[in-house]
Amino acid sequence: MKKEPYYITAENLAAAGKDNIPAELISNTHLIYSSPATLSFNSPGAEGFGVKRAGLAIPGSVMLLVAPGCCGRNTTTLSELGGYSDRIFYLMMDETDIVTGGHLKNIPQAVEEICKCTPSMPSVVMICITCVDALLGTDMERVCRKAMDRVNIPVLPCYMYALTREGRKPPMVHVRQSIYSLLEPMEKKLDTVNILGYFAPLIETCELYDLLHQIGMKKINEISRLKDFDEYMHMAEANFNLVLNPEARFAAQDIMKRLDIPAAELIRLYQIDKVQNQYRIFTNALGTSFDDQKYYDEAKKAIDELKAVYPDTTFAVGEAMNANSFELSLALIRYGFKVAEIYASLTYEDFVYIRKIAKLSPETKIYSNLEPTMLYYDCSEEKIDITIGKDAQYYHPDCVNVPWNQDIQPFGYAGVKKLFEELKHSLDCFDKEA
Amino acid sequence: MKGLRKYIPPFAPDQSGAAAVLYKLNGIIVICDAGGCTGNVCGFDEPRWVIEKSTIFSAGLRDMDAILGRDDRLVAKLVDTAKKVEAKFAAVIGTPVPAVIATDYNAIKKMAEKKLEIPVLTIETTGMDLYDVGAEKAYLKMFKTFAKDGLTVEKETIGVIGTIPLDMSDLKAADKIEAALKKEGFKNIYCYGMGVDLSKAEAAGSAFKNVVVSPAGLKAAQYLKERFGTPYEVFYPLVSDILQDEMKEQFKDFEGKKVLVIHQQVIANSIRDEIHRNVNSDVTVASWFMLKDELKEAQDISLMEEDQFVQLIEQGNYDVIIGDNILKRAIPNFKGMYVGTPHFAVSGKM
Questions:
Q1: CA A160 to CA A146: how far, in whole Å?
Q2: How do residues A363-393 score in pLDDT, each as one tens digit?
Q3: Which of B11, B18, B37, B216 is least enclosed by beta carbons within 10 angstroms?
Q4: Touching check for B39 and chain A: CB below 8 Å?
Q5: C-alpha span between A327 and A356 (Å, rounded)
Q6: How many A×B Cβ pairs under 8 Å?
Q7: Is the pTM of this model over 0.80?
């Protein structure tokens, strides 16, 4: 037995091609190793936004989790985060319920009881169901209608089906669709836009707000900034939706079908020239332009300052963070830094970055957090100066770490600027301590 | 209403109890789930997981695995892992998904053992029972599978059954119990569930006696008594550790009071004994977990529902409650004295 973690170099992975990804990097071919580096894969809600927290994005909503007790166990932590302890309730199933479906009959009464015990009437009750009801084939829409009759407020299903995480509509895609499903057709306002994709707002300094103002948008809706249910319902007035996370594509398509609101998509990038290109393509498509030079220069300055002070820095990049691991790694390599290791789950779409990494940094090692041999990962074998992502920190606990997993979402030039400022600040602090 | 929790989040489930018992034994532990249960077991119910490497895995079940009952794929994944990871046994721990599709654990065990050179244990947990039920099954299976016959009984060896963190709420509990029992003249103290490896489970038959510190350990102690003739006692030796202030004051605030102790049964009983040793009080034990008949007094109460708990406090006229602080959420109108005593399986707090 070798007792070594499996990895493949970028060069070898690119050469193998996306149709020959090694089994070690495909999660459904092996047991999933459970280390602190995989917590966000196994339990997205343990940190950041999982289905439960995301399902509470509608202002004034509460949630009833209908599931075996084990599914709600880690919600104790979530409840302790600001404001959630009064918003999550549980209806625990037992084995008899699995056989008889008896829990379904109790849901309307449970909804009525929780509405009575909240200080004010909730705007919506989300009913969150899990793998068990997925397998039982529960028609939760019907149950929600029955509950709605009892309380006269919307009752919505919300699906936390971990079994479908690699399917066509994984839980985090489904929940995005659910939270916009209450919107009803309204007269359109040409100067209103919805930003879809995240459950927390973009960083205040994000140039996207300026861009949207410049093209004539006066009202920019993000679900996390809406004060109340009425404001939420007015999202239906939007001229168009701007999708910033591919997991919101389904929601945007659904809104298009039901409310006739079209959508455009932008993605989060850390290659500054690609950020620029993306904005150009977007504004050209709208028949306008956006003067982004100031923002470009600020982001470039942050990159240059890091490069000037720490030119030979070696990075290890994880996946539990606000970036695509491979795109960020490529950006760092293109800026002249070394990326020695990447820990990430690979998708076909990532090959566009892998091929470029292979050309610029063929020796970069690619690991999967989920592979059983990661048990034997030894941090002493590679000299790393700084890690990005909480999972990467697990492998190199003594290195400088920037977790980069904050709720408030980095995006565009502002995201690039903030990341590089944080990297420099963290390295500066580490040097001072040393 | 049955099953409804408005104030108190769910407690640690059976799969967490089972995984905790096997945690230190150097086996491949497979939680038979889609990922979320493993996330809960490791990220919430197993405090040792963040401070030391472990061989816990998720089966990574997907919808078609469950719909088509593809146990062969699970076995293939297990065999693949056993080739890559050094382990003395493999254990498959159940969750709601296999419970719904009625997974045949015996078949998994037989299929896997044909292909592996290590023993395979299966623990049929469902995610719908509480941690102590899973722990009880795992202790029993651990001793049935690994305890060796023909060992000489050593007068200086003592087993302590029931010391998983979910029960002890203190990662140093094994060290403290060891120190306490060394004072009584024992040299080899085997704290099953926290401090010992597989070799000590194999050596269970050499113990002079066992101490049961959790109701989840009782069946295993009874089994060891039947198989090896090992006597057992049931008590928790660290009451002074969890009620330091009250012990210092010799429970004088409890004199003549009506007291409710809410914990796992063995700790709660030991707290009751300690109170009675010091003062005259009317003490009732209540537990959300198993209440063994042989350890129960007539007035003791099994808590099943949140509504029942609220009603008990409203109508019980208790002067003092000893219990985990998280329970206070459900009884904001209780005006008596509340002594916070952590129970990790309840609040996830030490």
A1: 21
A2: 999 999 999 999 999 988 889 999 999 999 9
A3: B11
A4: yes
A5: 10
A6: 214
A7: yes
